[in-house]
Amino acid sequence: MTEKKTGLIQYDDGYLNKTPIFQFILLSCLFPLWGAAASLNDILITQFKSVFTLSDFASALVQSAFYGGYFLISIPASMVIKKTSYKFAILCGLLFYIIGCGLFFPASNMATYTMFLFAVFSIAIGLGFLETASNTYSTMIGPRKFSTLRLNISQTFYPIGAAAGILLGKYLIFQNGASLTAQMIGLNEAELHVFKLQMLQHTLHPYKIMIFILLAVFLLFLITKYPKCKAVEKTSTEDNVGIIPTLKYLVKNSKFKKGIAAQFLYVGMQVAVWSFTIRLALVLDHSINERMAADFMVISYACFFVGKFIANFLIAKFSANKILLVYSIIGCILILYVSFVPSFTAVYAAVAISILMGPCWATIYAETLNSVEKKYTETAGAVLVMSIIGAACIPAIQGLVSDMTGSMQFSFIVNFFCFAYVGYYFYKRMSCES
C-alpha cells in the first residue's frame, strides 16, 4: 500500500482509497472521442455505398476495418501498459488517432475505397490503445467496490461523442437536396466521376475538426499527473507472469470465456443496429435523403445517453444482472418488430433499442475483469477489448443477409440472436447470485 501527498492511497491490488475527480473526468472525456469516430463510420457506410456502388456486405467492411484494428492492437497495447503506464498508452492512442485522421486527406485524393478503409483502420489502431487503457483504468481509479459504477459513468460520456460524430457527418458530409442515388441518376460518366469526387471531399471536413480536438486533449493529458493504479508486482517468478501463461490462465477461466462471448455478440449487435439504421430509414421511405435519415441516429444516441443514466440509477440500487436480463428481453421483442413489421415505425423501434444497449458493455467488461486475478488484469483487459472484433463480424453478416434476401429490414433478425445470448448470459449470472 502506497500513500501520496494528494491524500490518495493506492492499495496493493492497484485500486485507490478514493477517486481523483479531475483525473477521472478527463479520463472519461476520452470515451466520447472514440464514440465520435465510431458514429462517423455509420455516415461513411451510407456515403460509400452510393459513391463506390457497394453491396450492403461490402459497405459493412468499414466496420470490419475499424474493429479489426482494435482486435490486432489490443494485446500489443496491453504489453505497453504493462511495461509503462495507463497514461503513456493513452498518449500513444491519441497520437495514432491523429495520424489516422490525417490519412483521410490522401484517401480523398486517391478516391479509392481501399485507401479509405486503411485510414479507418489506422484510426482504430489509436482507439485500440485508448480503449484498452481507458476501460481498465476507469475501473481501477478509485475504490474497488465502485469499479463497475465508475466504468458505467465513464461510458455515459460515449453517446455524447457519438451524437457529435453523427451531427458532424450529417452537416459536413451529407448534403441538402435529393438522396445521393437520386442525384446520380441521369449523369453521364464524366459528370458522375466529378460528382463522386466532390462527395468524397466532403468526408474530410469532420476529420479536420477532430484533429484539433485531439491535439488539445493530448496536451491536457501530457501535463496532468495520474496515479499508476497498477497492482504491486511481486518478486516471485510465480507472480511475474508473461503473456503466454496469462492466456493459458484465461482460456481455463470459464467465467471469463462466457464474458468474452457475451461482449463479442453485444458489441456486434450494437454496431450492426447503428450501422444500418440510416439505410433502413432510406429503404422504408424513399422521399427522405441521407441528411434527414441521419436524424434517426442522432435520436438513437440521445436514447443511448438517457438509457445509460437510467441504468446507472437502477444498477446503484438493484442487481445489474436482473436489470440487464429485463433489458435483453425487451430488446429481443423490439428487434423482432424491426424485422417483421412492414411499416416505417420499424425505424422508431430500431431507435428505441439504443435505450437498452447503454449499460451492457460496461457491465460485462467490469464483471468479466473481476473474474480474473489482478496479476492478469492488463492482458485480460486487452482480450476483452479484442472482443470488439464482434463489430467487424456481425454487421458484415447482417449486410450479407440483406444482400442474399434483398431485404434490409429482415436482415435485422441477425441481432435478435445476439441479444438473446446476452440475455442468457445475464440470466446465468443472476442464477449464480441466488
TrEMBL record:
<keyword id="KW-1003">Cell membrane</keyword>
<feature type="transmembrane region" description="Helical">
    <location>
        <begin position="407"/>
        <end position="427"/>
    </location>
</feature>
<feature type="transmembrane region" description="Helical">
    <location>
        <begin position="21"/>
        <end position="40"/>
    </location>
</feature>
<feature type="transmembrane region" description="Helical">
    <location>
        <begin position="264"/>
        <end position="284"/>
    </location>
</feature>
<dbReference type="InterPro" id="IPR011701">
    <property type="entry name" value="MFS"/>
</dbReference>
<feature type="transmembrane region" description="Helical">
    <location>
        <begin position="379"/>
        <end position="401"/>
    </location>
</feature>
<dbReference type="InterPro" id="IPR036259">
    <property type="entry name" value="MFS_trans_sf"/>
</dbReference>
<feature type="transmembrane region" description="Helical">
    <location>
        <begin position="346"/>
        <end position="367"/>
    </location>
</feature>
<feature type="transmembrane region" description="Helical">
    <location>
        <begin position="60"/>
        <end position="81"/>
    </location>
</feature>
<keyword id="KW-1133">Transmembrane helix</keyword>
<dbReference type="GO" id="GO:0005886">
    <property type="term" value="C:plasma membrane"/>
</dbReference>
<dbReference type="InterPro" id="IPR050375">
    <property type="entry name" value="MFS_TsgA-like"/>
</dbReference>
<dbReference type="Pfam" id="PF07690">
    <property type="entry name" value="MFS_1"/>
</dbReference>
<feature type="transmembrane region" description="Helical">
    <location>
        <begin position="111"/>
        <end position="130"/>
    </location>
</feature>
<feature type="transmembrane region" description="Helical">
    <location>
        <begin position="207"/>
        <end position="224"/>
    </location>
</feature>
<dbReference type="GO" id="GO:0015535">
    <property type="term" value="F:fucose:proton symporter activity"/>
</dbReference>
<feature type="transmembrane region" description="Helical">
    <location>
        <begin position="296"/>
        <end position="316"/>
    </location>
</feature>
<dbReference type="InterPro" id="IPR005275">
    <property type="entry name" value="Lfuc_symporter_FucP"/>
</dbReference>
<feature type="transmembrane region" description="Helical">
    <location>
        <begin position="151"/>
        <end position="174"/>
    </location>
</feature>
<keyword id="KW-0472">Membrane</keyword>
<feature type="transmembrane region" description="Helical">
    <location>
        <begin position="88"/>
        <end position="105"/>
    </location>
</feature>
<protein>
    <submittedName>
        <fullName>FHS family L-fucose permease-like MFS transporter</fullName>
    </submittedName>
</protein>
<keyword id="KW-0812">Transmembrane</keyword>
<feature type="transmembrane region" description="Helical">
    <location>
        <begin position="323"/>
        <end position="340"/>
    </location>
</feature>
